[in-house]
Amino acid sequence: MKNASQYLWWHTGIIYQIYPRSYQDSNADGIGDLRGIIERLDYLQWLGVNVIWLSPVYPSPMADFGYDISDYTGIHPLFGTMADFDELLDVIHLRGMKLILDFVPNHTSDEHPWFMESRSSRDNLKRDWYIWKDPGDDGSVPNNWLSVFGGSAWEWDEHTRQYYYHGFLKEQPDLNWRNPEVQDAMLEVMRFWLEKGVDGFRVDVLWHLIKDKQYPDNPPNPDYQAHMPTYDQLLPVYSTDQPEVHDIISRMRSLLDSYDDRLMIGEIYLPIQKLMLYYGVDNKGAHLPFNFQLIDLPWNAQKIARAVDEYEAALPPGGWPNWVLGNHDRPRISTRVGIEQARIAAMLLLTLRGTPTIYYGDELGMRDVPIPFEEIQDPQGLNMPDKNLSRDPARTPMQWDCGANGGFSSVRPWLRVDEAFERENVQVEREDPHSMLSLYRRLIELRQKEQSLITGAYEPVECNEQTIAYIRRESGHLAFFVLLNLSNGSACFDNENRRINGFVNIATSPHLEGRIISGKINLNANEGIIVRLDQ
Ligand code: NOJ
């Protein structure tokens, strides 16, 4: 157990993910930018979040909207200049907030100078910086590995007559992380940003970095169904999650540790037991291997409660938990579970033990916006058109006010704004005490000031088909009881023998607030309460 002073900013903070293209356009080109984010810092401070994670803002041909980087130490002119970045970092720090950058080490853009060199000839000094393989005798691909974005992961290069590997788009060739020169070059990139003073990184697809040396075929996935992405036809047992990845992570971590209190978050979609290895031996791996249980699981009380218990039990000693409800790759929470359950989800996210990450706009209840086929821009959507996999619906412009384009831009935005923006936006919801935004703000405020919610233990109380109940308790502080009805039917919580006494501090339904709790607790459909327990 740590004492309060041993907790660092990223244990106690609340992370807010900004997708910069869609946050605020300051120069009337329909695309969000860094100066736009600077203009909106007042809002973020008012909301109460204190760690900002930016999706990539580096130079990029934008084949994958910035996750295809052609210069790791620059800023794309669409987003502004390095001076704008420096100013953003300064003003964030002046407000006592932190800035996390997206770091994309698994692959570069095919327009990165390293790849242009590598593909120029077989004996180029950077040839081995990427993964090149000979064709089979009949010209076939080196193995059956698939790209996450559809089709084979191998692309033929006619000029040098070899295939290169790309786990994502063919415009995103994978770096060869077994090559020490690649490791050194990428650590230099991290150092560049650390020297500037960024507070850490969210490391893209961390579990993809190292592949099996022999490149064996991946086995078929027995659970594959036609509606699933084509990538899921195989189990990526040889192309991801290799043991040697942990050596790379510890190199990254040592670099971070040579600075003060910098954070490494890893993007890792793996089952709980495998995920835990990414904390590293003696917690010298990623500080926060992203925990996507709340994104991946069906919205079911029992399944979620079980996952929370399993996750809590699996954490290594000293490992700090974290929870995520949404991101730029997945459908928004209010579309996935409905707007009423999205309020429950907010309550869950902000009362579980561990660092929460909020995806921009979820605090307004923003929904996936239907994007007509001819307007789809996301390569994942375009490459697998019959599977409804476009990520554009979850990346639409932030809804600020009732003005043109929801206050996002004075010109037509790169993606359409939700038609409901005049009712659901920051300006309107700020004034409405019962809005999603007001609920988020109050939950954040409570979490930031109550030690039991910040660092207290998680004590499961009960869970059934409908409800989840738990207590958060830090010794010497007031404890909180959380009861969430994840169903659309009314539910009763039998409080006999449990001695849960207190008053309702925050409820999804305002009339419950202030109510004294002692006997049975009855909840309507989709209701949740946070009870401040009597001492
Ligand atoms: C994960 C990122 O979140 C996603 O947006 C991107 O397309 C892939 N990695 C490839 O970089």
Automatic annotation (TrEMBL):
CDD domains the UniProt entry points to: AmyAc_OligoGlu_like
SUPFAM superfamilies: (Trans)glycosidases
One MF annotation (Gene Ontology) recorded for this entry: alpha-amylase activity
Family annotation (InterPro entries): GH, GH13_cat_dom, O16G_dom_2
Keyword set, alphabetical order: Glycosidase, Hydrolase
Example GO biological process: oligosaccharide catabolic process
Domain (Glycosyl hydrolase family 13 catalytic): residue spans on this chain: 17-395
Similarity-based family: Belongs to the glycosyl hydrolase 13 family.
Protein name per the record: Alpha-amylase
Organism: Arcticibacter tournemirensis
